[in-house]
Prior knowledge:
The chain has one domain (37-108, 121-195). The longest helix is centred in the last third of the chain and has 21 residues, at 146-166. The protein is 58% helix and 2% strand. Strands 1-2 form a two-stranded antiparallel ribbon. The protein contains 8 helices and 2 strands. It starts with 10 loop residues before the first helix and ends with a strand. Helix 4 (89-107) packs across helix 6 (125-132). The protein is mostly helical. It has helices at residues 11-24, 42-59, 66-82, 89-107, 116-120, 125-132, 146-166, 173-191, and strands spanning 31-32, 204-205.
Amino acid sequence: MCSSSPIIWPPRLLLTLQKHIETVENAENPAIPPMDNNLKTICIFFDNCHSALADRLAQKGFDYDLTDYCIHFLCEILEEACMQTFLLPRERRIITSMLRHKVRKTAVAPRSKVTTEQTSRKVPKMEVDAVETRGEGRLFTSLLSLEYLLRLFFTLPPVLEHYDKLGASVMPPYAKRPIWEFVNECLNLLNNIPDAFSPISSYIPLKK
């Protein structure tokens, strides 16, 4: 990373990100990380590391509640980005299909006082779309592996610059500092989790 970047990248994570991007964008055999491990999703990482992140930010003088704000902010950016250009077209089709399947399974899961007929019915596409657009901000993050969190962090500086250009004024550096501190602490934690990322050999080929 450029020395002027507000994000401090551990070398191991930069290498992980580089290999991930090269594999996803491979012209001959593109592939994506497996997403069948619910323990390695972005959502679970934030949930499991919430207290550690809050404590680290508090030690730097930030309010304890800042962690919730940062998580919500980053999840909102990622959810919006996934529907635009953050994912490659073929990658987005596969991941969106996986997300729809996950939402359907959740929508038809048996609940108390719900009849078998109700739970076994086919879920209309409109109902799935309603779940996907409910604004909960935790849909893609509940599915995507941690490699995509690295991708988000890598693109975050230019994304915030773009938001500045859309607004009437530029957000001053001190206003962005909490976000950068949060991101750097996330990277520090990820760097200390040996099995946070899937080996390239386990990636799932994208169908042409």
